[in-house]
Amino acid sequence: MFNSDDKVLLQQRSAEKMLWPSFWSNSCCSHPRYGEQEQEAVHRRIREELGIAVTRIKRYFDFEYRAAYKDIGCEWERCSVFSAFSDDPIKRNRSEIDAVRWVAINELSDLLMAEAENFTPWIKLEWQRLYPLLAAQRSD
């Protein structure tokens, strides 16, 4: 999720989450339902998690990751990475998200390195691939 101030939205996962509780992560995860188109899932989950409508949705790439969280559990997922735009105030779903913060696009890479232990594994992987694509778009 991006805004007109050239910032990306981060969410802090609920402390009630079994895996990576209270970790900072990407704006939203789409979790498509069986038979649901990806774009539909993007709109639905953004409404469910962030309480907003978005525009300018763009699909970038897919990636797969596998990561274990302590001795509690593991995720092995295929992720499709999209960007979306909104300047609407966030109305977070408190059962999903403890906090949100906007970070300048050009500062997120440094933040992910400096505070790596506070972020989910998937945002680090996705940002490593997404940031160069965003930077190339901005220079066009």
Give a verbal description of the structure.
With 140 residues, the chain is of the alpha+beta class. The chain has a single domain, classed as Nucleoside Triphosphate Pyrophosphohydrolase. It has three helices and five strands. It has helices spanning 38-50, 105-114, 121-139, and strands spanning 7-13, 24-25, 55-69, 73-85, 97-104. Strands 2-1-5 form a three-stranded antiparallel sheet. The protein has a two-stranded antiparallel sheet with strand order 3-4. It is globular.
Mean pLDDT: 94
CATH architecture: Alpha-Beta Complex
Number of strands: 5
Structural class given helices, strands, pairing? alpha+beta
Please give the domain count.
1
Return residue spans where pLDDT drops below 50 for at least 5 consecutive residues: none
Number of helices: 3
What is the CATH H-level superfamily? Nucleoside Triphosphate Pyrophosphohydrolase
CATH overall fold name = Nucleoside Triphosphate Pyrophosphohydrolase
CATH class: Alpha Beta
Question: Helix share of residues?
Answer: 25-40%
Radius of gyration: 14 Å
| Biggest sheet layout | 3 strands, antiparallel
The fraction of residues in strands falls at: 25-35%
Order of helices and strands: EEHEEEHH
- Major sheet: order of its strands? 2-1-5
Query: Which term fits the overall shape?
Result: globular
Cα distance, first to last residue? 20 Å
